[in-house]
Each structure stands twice: as C-alpha cells, then as structure tokens.
Fold this protein.
Amino acid sequence: MKHKIKKMRLVILGTGIITILICLQSNTTIPPGYKGKPYKDSVYNRGPQIIPGTIECAYYDMGGEGVAYHDFEPINKGSGELNKLPDHQRQHATAYQWDFRNDEAVDISYTKDFADYNHTDNYFTPPLNQLYIGWTEDNEWVNYTVNVIRPGKYKIVALYGNDANTINFSINNKPASVCKLPLATGSWHKWNKAEIGTITFAEAGIQLLTFHYNKGNNFASFDFIFMPE
C-alpha cells in the first residue's frame, strides 16, 4: 500500500519551530502487475466505474482472457453468435448493442422485445437495450477497475435473471463478499432486482473488484449503496 503526504503544517512561536505535523493519507491502488484497464469505446469513455453507484456488468475491464476475465469458451455466444442472426438484431437497438464486444470471450447480449418484455411476470423490468453477461459457467469471473469515492459498508443490489445462485466478490484479489441471489425467476429472461448482500471497502481510491459467478444466470448490473453507520 502506498502513502502520500496530505498536509504539512508548521506551528511557529516567536523565531522557533515548535511542531511539524505530517498527516498521511492511504492511497489504495490496484494490485501490482495487474495489466487490465477500465473499459472504454467510442460511446463509453467515463473511466473507472464509480462506487457508490451502478456497476454495469458488460463494462468489465479491457485486457483479455486471464487478465480482465476468465471464460471457458473463446466465442462470445451473444454478440459473436446469436446476435448475428437477423431476427436478433431488433429494431429498438443498434449495431452497438448487437455487436457489443463481439470479439471477446465473455458472453454478452442485450434485452429484447420478444424475450425480455413480452411477458408480464418479470419481478423487475430492465431498461430497454440493457446489456448483460449471460451463458454463465461455473468458476468464470470478470474484473472491474473501480473508483471508490467513500470507504465503508455497502449494500449490493443485483439485476439478474434465472437461478438463485451464490456469487462472490473480491477486492484487490482478496475475498470480500459472498452474496445470495434471493429467488429463482423461472427463466433466463425473467428479471429480478433485489438486495443480495453487503461488501466493505476499507479505503477510498482506485481498486480492483472481481465478480465470480457460476452457471445459470444473466447478470446486468449491481448497485452499490452506501450504508451509514
């Protein structure tokens, strides 16, 4: 962990220096050797996603297999396969959603009129053209370089579909939270938004958040909501 001088104050009495006060502020950074970097493209260029706030699952880091993510199959089953079919290039979306990160292995798609909005039993209706990670398999993961504005304890609220699985988060490569999706929605394309657990960021600053997941879900986003003591 690095430190930097935040403030230096000289207290002077007459001609003598009585006290020198140096305050050190922790400056958390991502683990040494990490080669990933925050996602950006011609549309999204906001830098690290911010906590407190919403982490969009599809905006995982850049850096490729073994660095920014781990996915067992090299093809993107959404953008690189399913969404190449004309019927899945819906008129309410654009090529940006159809082709999103189509050359990477993480399986990404977007919410569609005939799959996600054509039924009345969503527990929560996701935003139109919501990007999400799908086709999940056991022991896959994605990394996010995040900017934690305020240290402390956070409630995590997930926008997800399908199974009531257990998922995990790490901070700077150290286990930080075990979360439980509260109910099975009954379909990959029936969505729920619900509190799933908590996580504590001990310090502010740029950090590495890793999301570990298993087979059986679509994941769209996570809200990290600060919990005052």
Residues 95-98 form the longest helix (4 residues).
